[in-house]
Each structure stands twice: as structure tokens, then as C-alpha cells.
Amino acid sequence: MALRVLKTALSLRSVYRLHKIQAHLMSSNASPEVLFERVGNAGVIILNRPKALNALTLNMIRHIYPQLKKWESDSETSIVIIKGAGDKAFCAGGDIRALSDAGKVGDPLVKELFREEYILNNATGTCKKPYIALIDGITMGGGVGLSVHGRFRVATEKTLFAMPETAIGLFPDVGGGYFLPRLQGKLGLFLALTGFRLRGRDVQKAGVATHFVESEKIGALEKDLVDLKVPSVSEVAQVLDSYHQQSTLDAEKSFVLQQHTEAIDRLFTASSVEEIMENLQKDGSAFAQKQLEILSKMSPTSLKLTFRQQQAGATMTLQEVFVMEYRLTQACMRGHDFYEGVRAVIIDKDQNPKWKPPTLAEVTEEFMEESFRSLGERDLVF
């Protein structure tokens, strides 16, 4: 009798937890998570979760996509601007903890979130109207997906860009398999594996942003953009170029990674993650040893998935990359390391994840092939 009561209580607790997760992912609070404004000929998207660093939710995705498509076909809308509320972040990523909770109980919203997020990411990359992302602040993960595929990306001295997914048992998704391999040399692979943080003007110098403008001038830039009368792409570019050219802040500073460009290209030119680790070990420089230390803490599974993702994505279209990445997300959701990474970094914050398997050598080729394999009728389709 006692055992039956215990089982019933546990079952009810699981149902309650699932309902809480669904409510968290789907709810629209009294203060909307995303705002839409028409200013002049511009459609303006405002990510409106400043206390959560504008972290992206499924609810936000489901509001942004139809509005973006509406503005794209609306003859009265000439440009689309997206920005974040508050002064700290454009968008610091997705709601990883909610995603982890959902995955643990088999919530189908996990599949829906990735699917709908990638469809939105693709829409920003194929938008027929000039799409301008003002990445004034922290821009990671989901925030990168909302910005980097658009025609124009404006960084400021407050911008902090990173794709730190290998530290939590994931991989740099939201199209990371497309834009990262297309950065100069091996920079993209370096950023993908290590999660290195780019700041300020370096975000533009690396090629992630198209322009750099001082944060205090973003308001004036936005006004000049919305004041344009039926602007062409070249007219939008001229306004952005003028502000970029006026920006003197940090203008004389060299790209922070410039002194390591040769080393990055040399050390990260390899046929496997193991070979990169060997290169770093043999090099012996302070820079190489630091990267070796960082990579040694990452999920071995994530490192291998990321390496192959970057190799494959270099020759794929953006849509093909999203199809590949959707398959990889589902492999990660079926696995161990994502949940352990979230526990160690976000929940318990002990920064001591126990990866399974714990070494690169134990990540099997069979697992890798399975992760990249077609999901059949469950594949992402545009």
C-alpha cells in the first residue's frame, strides 16, 4: 500500500513538473517577452526580458517568426531592426535550464523549440528586407542565431560574443556550422571548440559583426535608419558605414587575437580533435597551453561533434546546416553530457561536470555516425 502511494506521488510530481516546464516555455507574461513597433518605414523587434538578459524562449520565437514574415511581405515596411531591452544584453542565449528540464521528462517541446528556432534563424538569413541586428551587449547562443545570419550586424564596445556550448555538452548551433567555418583561417573552429569570448570592436574585426558603432550613438543610428524613405540596401549600408567610420573608440587597438592568428591557423589545422590536442601539447607556448587546458575541460563528445559539424558545414548551404544541426540537437537530447553540463554550470555551479564518456578516445565512430544520420520523417524541413 505504501509503495503504491509513493509511486502515485512520484507520478503526480512528474506530471506537475512537466506542466511547470510547459508553462515556463509557452507562457506570455503580463509584460510581453517580445515587443513589436512600427517606426516610420521600419519594423522594430525588441527582445523584452532584460532581467533574464533577453534569453530566448519558445514563446518569443513563436511571436517573432510570423511578425517577421508579415513585415517581409508588407509594402509599407522597408527594413527590420532587432534589438534587446535593457543595457546589458542583446540576447544571452536560450533558456538552457528549462530546455534541460524538458528533455529529462521527454517533453516534445524540446523538439519543437529547436525546430522552430532554426526556421526563424533561416528566416533572418533569407529576409528580403534589410535586416539589422543591434547587438549592443551580451550576444551568445540563441542571440547569435537571431543576428549573425542577417544582412547587417552592429556591434558596440558593450558587445560580448561567444558560442560556449562545448562547455555544457552541446555544440555551437543556430547556424554555427555555417558562419563559423567562413571566418578567416581557422578562427571559426577555434571559437567553436574553445568558446573564446570576443569583445567590442573585435566582434567586427573577426567578421561576426559587419559594423562597429559606439553604444551611445546607437539611438541616433536607429533614428537615421527609421527616417529613411523606402531605403535600398545600399542606402542602409551608407548610413551604417558613416557611423562605423565615425567610431574612434578602440580604433587603434589591434584585433586581440591578431598576435595569435598564425598560431591558431597552425595549431587548429588538423584532421581530428585529438590531433589539435597533440599540436597544442607539442607547441608548449603559453597560448597553446591555455587552449589545451580549456579544451581538456570540455565535453569530449561535444568537441568531436563540433569538429565534424565545422568540417561538414563549410561546404553546405545555410538550410543544409540547419538540417544537420537539428539532427545533432536530438542526439544531444538523447545523451548524457548536456544534462550534466547544465547541472555543473547552471544548476549546482560546481564547474565540475562528469562527462560520459570521459575521454575523446571513448567517443565511438558509431555514435558519431548515428548523430549525423537522417531522422527520416522527423528531419527538419523548410
Give a brief rundown of this model.
The chain is of the alpha/beta class.
**What structural category characterises the helix and strand content?**
alpha/beta
> Strand order across the biggest sheet?
1-2-3-5-7-10
CATH class: Alpha Beta
Large-scale geometry: globular
Terminal Cα separation, in Å?
Answer: 52 Å
GO molecular function, one term: 3-hydroxyisobutyryl-CoA hydrolase activity
Family: Belongs to the enoyl-CoA hydratase/isomerase family.
Domain Enoyl-CoA hydratase/isomerase: 43-372
Pfam families: ECH_2
Give an overview in words:
This protein is α/β, with parallel strands linked by helices. The chain has 17 helices and ten strands. It has helices at 2-26, 58-73, 96-104, 109-126, 142-145, 176-179, 187-194, 201-205, 218-226, 233-246, 261-267, 273-283, 286-297, 300-313, 318-334, 337-347, 365-372; strands at 34-39, 42-47, 79-84, 89-91, 131-135, 138-140, 152-155, 160-162, 198-199, 211-212. The strands form two sheets. The chain has a six-stranded mixed sheet with strand order 1-2-3-5-7-10, sandwiched between helices. The protein has a four-stranded mixed sheet with strand order 4-6-8-9. Strand 2 (42-47), helix 2 and strand 3 (79-84) form a beta-alpha-beta unit. The longest helix has 25 residues, at 2-26.
Blueprint of the fold:
Layout (H helix, E strand, L loop, with lengths): L1 H25 L7 E6 L2 E6 L10 H16 L5 E6 L4 E3 L4 H9 L4 H18 L4 E5 L2 E3 L1 H4 L6 E4 L4 E3 L13 H4 L7 H8 L3 E2 L1 H5 L5 E2 L5 H9 L6 H14 L14 H7 L5 H11 L2 H12 L2 H14 L4 H17 L2 H11 L17 H8 L10
Parallel strand pairs: 2-3, 3-5, 4-6, 5-7, 6-8, 7-10
Antiparallel strand pairs: 1-2, 8-9
Keywords: Branched-chain amino acid catabolism, Hydrolase, Mitochondrion
Function: Hydrolyzes 3-hydroxyisobutyryl-CoA (HIBYL-CoA), a saline catabolite. Has high activity toward isobutyryl-CoA. Could be an isobutyryl-CoA dehydrogenase that functions in valine catabolism. Also hydrolyzes 3-hydroxypropanoyl-CoA.
Enzyme class: hydrolase
